């Protein structure tokens, strides 16, 4: 599977489902973004079970602002609708593989428990 263009119109349906979604926030004028693009594209072809989305921060400024993107490229990973990774900077191929392996290996019951604890702590 190749990458999917993510917009304000399809972001919610893309990240809210089950499974893994990786989002690359980028812009055409960004040198590091252009260096990371082929790495991201190659990984999308190697992992057809993962959704690889690209968010053009110039075209989707409201979406980038909503995710508080201050530096590009920024990579975000969602699993089962939960943000589990966010990091600015272009990753080398080995770094992206490491992120994918870590996200695949997450104990989602534990992640959901931690999210619930954080929400409870914030509301008290």
TrEMBL record:
This protein's UniProt keywords: Disulfide bond, Electron transport, Redox-active center, Transport
Entry keyword annotation includes Phosphoprotein: no
Entry-linked InterPro entries: Thioredoxin, Thioredoxin-like_sf, Thioredoxin_CS, Thioredoxin_domain
Boundaries of every Thioredoxin domain copy: 1-105
SUPFAM superfamilies reported in the protein's UniProt record: Thioredoxin-like (SSF52833)
Origin superkingdom: Bacteria
Keyword Transport: yes
A Pfam family the protein falls into: Thioredoxin
The family this protein is said to belong to: Belongs to the thioredoxin family.
Protein name: Thioredoxin
Gene: trxA_1
């Amino acid at each position: 599977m190749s990458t999917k263009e993510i917009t304000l119109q399809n972001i919610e349906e893309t990240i809210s489902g089950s499974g893994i979604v990786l989002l690359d926030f980028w812009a055409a004028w960004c040198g590091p973004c252009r260096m990371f693009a082929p790495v991201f594209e190659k990984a999308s072809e190697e992992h057809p079970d993962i959704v690889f989305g690209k968010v053009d921060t110039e075209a989707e400024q409201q979406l980038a602002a909503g995710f508080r993107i201050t530096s590009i490229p920024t990579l975000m990973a969602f699993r089962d609708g939960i943000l589990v990774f966010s990091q600015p900077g272009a990753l080398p191929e080995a770094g992206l593989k490491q992120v994918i392996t870590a996200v695949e290996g997450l104990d989602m019951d534990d992640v959901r428990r931690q999210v619930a604890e954080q929400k409870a702590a914030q509301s008290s």
